Amino acid sequence: MTINNFIPTVWSARILENLNNAHVYAPLLNRDYEGEIRQAGDTVKINSIGRVAVFDYTKNADLADPEVLDDSQLILAITEGKAFNFQIDDVDKAQQKPQVMSEAMREAAWALADVEDLYVAALLAAGVATASPDNTLTAVTLGTGAGDADAYETLVNLSVKLDESNVPKNGRWCVIPPWVHGLLSKDPRFVSFNTDAARRQIRGEPITEIQSMMISVSNNVPVSGSAYTILAGYKAAATFADQLTKTEAFRMEKRFADGIKGLHLYGAKVTRPYALASVAATAA
What we know:
The protein is an alpha+beta fold. The chain has helices spanning 8-22, 98-128, 151-164, 178-185, 188-191, and strands at residues 43-49, 71-77, 80-89, 140-142, 172-176, 208-210, 213-217, 223-224, 227-234, 238-251, 257-270, 276-283.
């Protein structure tokens, strides 16, 4: 495949498709404020309204003057900029096959998504610490032995934390590492209600539901030493915005090769810390 046959819009769309498939944490967040993002450092302004007061009504009595609503504005900064840049040499006969380019673009998308997923996971973990009241459960050691905490019950406890913060049940999620999924798979309370579709263990695909929380499995669960930070939350807890702004093909000046480069810009902001909960879990 020569540079003349390269169609940037096609490959750009393929990159975006692969990015969406590879994400775990990002799709769990609100993306209403995503828009035109053209360069790192751009910002998205998020307007919010304070709580509305409720008062007793007295028959045949005048109402008090209308309250003035408090509004605030959060700034979602597009702080992250990641890029890829690779070449395919003319000598490599395999480069004549479109499958090679497709695989290369798929790998580029996966690499971009993996870095992005780690960023979002760390941001959410840090956001729990700012919640009031504190939505961090006591650290646990998960296993099946005597004295070990139960994985299923631990996730239920995370959901209870969200209940206590008046978080809506619709749109809740929880992300667990593979080893916790292994423990849950041995628990009849978890596996007995799975459908064939729910049992698919594709990375990032929700596998089932516990206490109104859709459960996803990821290798990017934040970890410190041997402790994994299992996060639970609600879609409106944080907002995310990203855009692959450019995918370009070019002819290498000093080589007989075609080059491909792309740029991915994104940022995230925790907007409702109380809608997040976490627990540090260590394998027994």
